[in-house]
Amino acid sequence: MKLTARQVNRFNMFKLPAAYLTGVRAKSLNDSQCTVTVKHRWINQNPFRSMFWAVQGMAAELTTGALVMGKIVESGKSVSMLVANNKAEFTKKATGRITFECREGEKVDIALAEAIKTGEGQTVWLNAKGRNKDGITVSTFSFEWSLKVKN
What we know:
There is one protein chain. By secondary structure, this protein is an alpha+beta fold. It contains four helices and six strands, in the order H-H-E-E-H-E-E-H-E-E. A six-stranded antiparallel β-sheet has the order 1-2-4-5-6-3.
């Protein structure tokens, strides 16, 4: 079974309500990439009239995490996933609709295959860029995902 953007949004509604209530939504998910959007609104703003950094972080993490979850579902194996580390850079005020994208599905394939083959935990760094409607990068996030096959 393939994981879809709709299933990710339903999961968020019940398991990650903060992301759902602040408007974080998966728009597309396939083998190589995931796209998530969030619109600047009253509920997710900071005192400077832009999107709170943590809301951007939730959208960026979902972009990479949904890609990992989709690959785990496709593998048919029981694999735990956890963010081990992250980095962020903010380059422009985030207003309007921000689109986060991760196009690193191949990196996940390699790490997951190694974890399944060796039975040892693996880590993989995945990047997500957030862009405004003009295509200007407002933030860049990197997440180190830890993958381990459960016994």
